[in-house]
Each structure stands twice: as structure tokens, then as C-alpha cells.
Amino acid sequence: MAKFRTHDTVYWNTPQGITYGEIIQKIVRTGSFHGLIITASRNDPWYVIKSARSGELAAYRPDGLEKA
Questions:
Q1: Are 12 and 22 in contact (CB under 8 A)?
Q2: Measured in whole angstroms, how far is the alpha carbon of residue 55 from the centre of its chain?
Q3: Predicted confidence band at 8 (pLDDT cuts at 50, 70, 90)?
Q4: Which residue, 3, 4, 41, 46, could crosslink 27 as a Cys pair with Cβ 3.0–4.6 Å?
Q5: Beta carbons within 8 Å of 15's beta carbon, 6+ residues apart
Q6: What is the rounded CA–CA span in Å between residue 45 and residue 29?
Q7: In the chain, where are the structural domains located?
Q8: Up-side HSE of residue 58: CA atoms within 13 Å toward CB?
Q9: What's the pLDDT score for residue 3?
Q10: In this structure, what are the phi and psi dihedrals at residue 62, rounded to the nearest 5 degrees?
Q11: CB half-sphere exposure, 52, CA atoms < 13 A
């Protein structure tokens, strides 16, 4: 599994195709993000990504992301 840091540029696959964005936050605690319950921990983090295309925020697990 790749190690990601804040401000890394990453890409992921969506139904619309490959999308790029910037990691703006690492989530390491269980909580809510835009109504979605995220179960995260230090050993199983999630990342908040800002899409370069739309500017929208989304949360992703690291296994769905690749460094650009």
C-alpha cells in the first residue's frame, strides 16, 4: 500500500474516467464526512481529496488511490 501525505497529487478511477486531485486531510478516527460514516484508524486511514476538475471534496480509502 502506498504512503500518502497531505498535498500529494493523486488520481483515482470514476465512472466518468480518471480524476486527479490533491490530498488535503488524512482521517484516522471514525466519524462522519458529508453524511457518510467513515470507519478509520491509524492503521486504516481514509483521505480527503479535493478534485482538480470540480473542486469538490471526497473521502477515499488508500487502496483506491494512486500517486500521480
A1: no
A2: 13
A3: very high
A4: 46
A5: none
A6: 8
A7: 9-67
A8: 20
A9: 87
A10: -65, -25
A11: 13
